[in-house]
Design brief:
With about 210 residues, this protein is an alpha+beta fold. Helices cover about 35% and strands about 30% of the residues.
């Protein structure tokens, strides 16, 4: 182990604590633990004001190039395939530039990349995933404002609840989701060893 790796380990321990470091280490070895967050749409959906003026609207296939500029790690083909699957993307624009986005599905909980298969959604539920905000505008309330807009669209469509997955050590994401009314409902655990995957039974969390 060289000095730079020791430095990264020490920074992680200082910034995030031993618990987060331990979970990340297990993740690297193939054991993953995720929080399943749930938000009932029967509860009031409160406004989440942003510190930066943004316009929130649906991304269209014609806007794919704008999305690629926003997320250079994405590919136009993959984004188009998500549209063809029925997934939707809500974006926040500042001065005509995308600064934040979230994707949503009404068909399944997307875990194919990690688990090798997607998980079915309960009737009347939707799944929020792949939320991203540009680093320079994080902390300005854009992510929770996008979630609130997404939740209101779902409520108008007669959905009953929204769910999402996040890693336990992403404290900033947990705070952002909490502002939109999400709460931890269960813990998802699985083991990944090469092509082999095993999903443990959901561990419910008392409300």
């Amino acid at each position: 182990m060289n000095d730079s790796l020791w430095s990264r380990v020490w920074r992680t321990l200082q910034d995030e604590g031993l618990g987060s470091f331990w979970l990340k280490s297990l993740d690297a070895l193939g054991y993953r633990r995720l929080y399943l967050l749930r938000r009932s749409l029967a509860e009031p959906i409160l406004d989440c004001p942003t510190m930066l003026p943004v316009a929130i609207d649906w991304l269209t296939i014609e806007d794919v190039q704008d999305y690629i500029v926003f997320r250079p790690d994405a590919s136009g083909h993959d984004v188009t395939q998500q549209f063809l699957k029925g997934d939707r993307c809500l974006v926040a624009r500042h001065e005509d530039r995308i600064v934040g986005a979230i994707w949503g599905s009404s068909e399944s909980i997307h875990m194919k990349r990690s688990l090798g298969r997607d998980l079915p959604l309960a009737a009347g539920e939707a799944f929020q995933f792949d939320a991203y905000t540009l680093p320079e505008v994080r902390g300005m309330g854009i992510a929770p404002a996008l979630s609130v807009a997404w939740l209101r669209h779902l409520r108008d469509e007669a959905c009953v609840a929204a769910t999402l997955l996040t890693v336990p050590w992403n404290v900033a994401a947990l705070r952002s989701h909490a502002k939109a009314g999400y709460r931890v409902a269960a813990v998802v655990r699985y083991v990944r060893l090469g092509p082999w995957r095993y999903l443990f039974p959901l561990q419910q969390v008392a409300p």
